[in-house]
Amino acid sequence: MNILVINAGSSSLKYQLLNPETQQVLAKGLCERIGIDGKFTYKPEGKEAVKEADVAMPTHNEAIKAVLDALVDPKNGVIGSMKEIDAVGHRVVHGGEKFAKSVLITDEVMAAIEECNPLAPLHNPANIIGIKACQALMPDTPMVAVFDTAFHQTMPPAAYMYALPYEYYEKDKVRRYGFHGTSHKYVTQRAATMLDKPIEQLKLISCHLGNGSSITAVDGGKSVDTTMGFTPLAGVPMGTRSGDLDAGILQYLMNKYSMGIDEMLNVLNKKSGVEGLSCVSSDFRDLESAAAKGDEKAALAQKKFAYEVKKFVGAYAAAMGGVDAIIFTAGVGENDKAIRSMVCEGLEYMGVKLDAAANDVRGKETIISASDSKAKVLLIPTNEELMIAIDTASLAK
């Protein structure tokens, strides 16, 4: 089957056409600056790529049409006609408590997704726009919604509830939802294959570390706790997000600097994290370079990040009563050997023993723990598009 994977943002649209059975990527690309001046990137397998071409995209409809036209182009296309696209898988950020798995999109499903808009006001409306644009141009093609939050719907109440007045949960659905679920699901399934054990028998800790980061405890293939919460702001420090902090700090800073809540949240989401702490950058490569030159704040930002990740690894091992493997994935997890080393340092009491030579690797699926390490350490490049395509294919057959 050929599955078109769509990840629609407010002014951008990532896409990939792939076969989930063979894992062959036929084409991928990006539509940027939708509604502004339109930039189109298209990378077909074995053919000439198009990079940031000027294409008029006043709406997502024109962006989707540009993608479909490129895929079936007589000279540079990768399929003969749109009939060769068997289904479309849409990434949807928030499914609230309504969706615990991927679903075929119907009118009822669309209405339920729209009801979740207040939980993800920057993301869900854009995801919906992408779905509607595809429906308009491909009315006879099955559409599937794959939710970032769905994987975490297996968390028990003790993990997802906040210690707030219960009415805020009953009336307003304030609870921990978690994100990066598609990534955590993919890498934990790959971990079971690498360890040659049924996932139902494994206790895994998945560390999705990038500009946005989250740690998830996966027991028997099910998410039982995760660091991101009601929003993606919670958990470990990230590129520009603060992660967990004392809520009283907000009142203190807002009163002292006469900030409104929107300005305060802008600080927490866009000016904090390792960028705020280091005064250098949100890019961990810049932090590493600066720290190597003696920049103490950059070094502190690295250590703070690794320290907080390590704390959650220890906490989740305790919550599950042990751990069989720790997984590193996403941009930082896959490529930053220094961060991986700092996270694992001191976890020997848990049976974690990193192999320095094996850890000297970037973006390659491999075991980086020593042969006598009781708990294995795995590097697994994430592939959310493939996971979306697999879920889509299973529902569209």
Summarize the structure.
The chain has 397 residues and is an alpha/beta fold.
Please explain how this structure is put together.
This protein has 397 residues and is α/β, with parallel strands linked by helices. Helices cover 38% and strands 19% of the residues. The protein contains 15 helices and 14 strands. Strand 10 and strand 11 (222-226) form a beta hairpin. Helix 1 (60-71) crosses helix 3 (124-137), helix 6 crosses helix 15 (384-396) and helix 10 packs across helix 11.
Order of SSEs, N→C? Answer: EEEEEHEEHHEHHHEEEHHHHHEHHHEEH
Low-confidence stretches: none
Mean pLDDT: 95
What global shape is seen? globular
For the sheet with most strands, the description reads: 8 strands, mixed
Query: If helices are DSSP runs of H or I spanning 4 or more residues, what is the number of helices?
Result: 15
